[in-house]
Amino acid sequence: MKNPSSAKQSQARKVESHLVTFSPAPPVFLLNRVIETYGGYPEKALSLFLDMNRSGVYASEVTFASVLGSCGAMLALCLWRQVHGLIVKYGFVGNVILESSLVDVYGKCQVIKDGQKMFDEIKNPIAVSWNVIVRRYLEMDDGTKVGFMFFKMFQTAVRPFNFTFSNALIACSSIFALKEGKQIHGVAIKMGFEDDELPCMLHMCASFGDLLAVSQWRDPVTRPC
């Protein structure tokens, strides 16, 4: 039986071979396809992208989205700064998806200050943007900042994802903010996320040693509304 990983890489090589046919200016859609196919090989995808950029191939927003999506696991900060610079150069500043992806990458590279700076430059952050910054602060064990960004999100009209609530509740457990955690869970209930967030709420109450609350939350009859 053929290894799926090997099959995918073989497919990528076949598509990449077509780039030579169109050299020195292969169509952007073909470049996008090669980068997407190399999704499991971030070093190769990013290397190919940079090579094509040096060859003068015009990169579209879709190209950058493919690069950011395919190479999100590659923690090479110097290379990501190059990609960031190219996004600015090509005039794609203002694309909220690309900007949110950059926030994500900076967070993964543990340069959260740069991630926050990038986030602050987003004119109208969407739910993805907020979830990314909240998640990355949680991974940095900065529960206070998680709470700050989470409550700041509610000053906007953005509707959070259910897992954004989960991240905020986990952060409350880490900084012993039971009151804030209950407030967050109350909002989750009002927005219809009660069942999704119940495990996190139980974990938070247990972390504080509030066994009575754990018992109440487990029972639908006594569960606070």
Automatic annotation (TrEMBL):
What GO terms are given for molecular function?
RNA binding
Gene3D superfamilies given in the database record: Tetratricopeptide repeat domain
Pfam family, any one? PPR
Q: Which UniProt keywords apply?
A: Repeat
Coiled-coil residue spans = none
Alphabetical GO biological process terms: RNA modification
What is this protein called in UniProt? Pentatricopeptide repeat-containing protein
From the broadest rank down, the organism's phylogenetic lineage runs: Eukaryota, Viridiplantae, Streptophyta, Embryophyta, Tracheophyta
